[in-house]
Amino acid sequence: MRNIKLLIEYDGTNFCGWQRQNNGRTIQEEIEKALEKVLKRPVKIHGSGRTDTGVHALGQVASFKANITVPMDKIPLALNSLLPEDISVKGASEVEEDFHARYSAKGKKYIYQIYNGPLRSPLLRNYAYFVAHPLDLNRMQEAAQYFLGSHDFKGFMASGSCVQDTVRTLYKLDVYFHENLIKIEVEGNGFLYNMVRIISGTLVEVGKEKILPTEMQKIIASGIRESAGPTAPAQGLYLAEVFY
Amino acid sequence: MRNIKLLIEYDGTNFCGWQRQNNGRTIQEEIEKALEKVLKRPVKIHGSGRTDTGVHALGQVASFKANITVPMDKIPLALNSLLPEDISVKGASEVEEDFHARYSAKGKKYIYQIYNGPLRSPLLRNYAYFVAHPLDLNRMQEAAQYFLGSHDFKGFMASGSCVQDTVRTLYKLDVYFHENLIKIEVEGNGFLYNMVRIISGTLVEVGKEKILPTEMQKIIASGIRESAGPTAPAQGLYLAEVFY
Fold it and tell me: Domain Pseudouridine synthase I TruA alpha/beta, which positions (chains A, B) (predicted)?
């Protein structure tokens, strides 16, 4: 039995997210179906975490165990020939027996993209959040600093989540212009449900001057979901990298 | 009667090209339908040129005449509220009576995007040409020089076209890496049918070392379509700008 780690890119637009479900096309199901064709038996894969409907991945990681004789460097092409066009396996490697894509993850990097301009961009409609109101990048950058370090991010979690420990550590939260986009790049040891989208939605409120950067500390400390900004839409979010 | 110039961006993926036709969704038809709703009467618009199925535009230009009282700066938002998400009017201005988007055009700029890597990218599948074979950028740049200036581009025109004068002048043909893409940026006083896609397809053959850069001169001079490379696929092509 070998333990295999896959690196996966996908366009989340036409998926009902990562996790297999009864109704709706999911990334997990497509990959499991392709693996079953290669291995001639059902295989269950474990993702580093779920992504929601419309969320993209540049570097999702999944792992599975199988008796597989195909050389590792042949796996991506073999799977891609069976996968739909909106998923691509970008790498495969054999890992230690106890490696698990989710439980072994030490951290993650997400990128959130905002298209800020007076008129919407058709080419970016599925790949960035369109904000027509001019955003003040300096204010967003100032506000971002308050998120760094370890905090109880309870107020930045989708209501209804039932995680016990809501303390997470962010190592990086950069906000910058890149070509015609504002990018929010976040790295941390873990993320609560919708956390990056709520942080992004809150930074957009700061950019619109509806929230002062200096209010961040109080908003985070409050632990109240309603104090933070709205959840920014799914299509701007990319799971960029998983750290092990 | 005012003469109006529109600047238009679109994602060509789900269109059967620019030009109105009986079967199939087109950009021209969508804009004419939106204009009709605003102006309460049918309007015919003239594009700077057609784009094919799957071809995108960052800066397509169209013109039309109408008795319109809406201020110019309100037109983009008014039209966008009626247009589907894959089209956006990015600007509107009043122009001289004799302006015509097609006949007044002095030149155009196109960008052709290639994703060159071992494995396909789902996020770029509709926005770049995926070439797995490693491309030699230096050779492509060397070959590009031969296209500059005035040439009879008969060999770089889709067979079946019935244009009389096939001489065109290219002012610019830059090939460069940008992030994870190879971009081919072309400016000229006019383009034959499929010309940019055939030039791009030929440069890809050069990048694969199937054609020598120094053969370009002979291939162009031959005027034979079969001497040039294949027509690169539509999804890599962007009409970037029209010059007046």
Answer: 8-104, 143-244
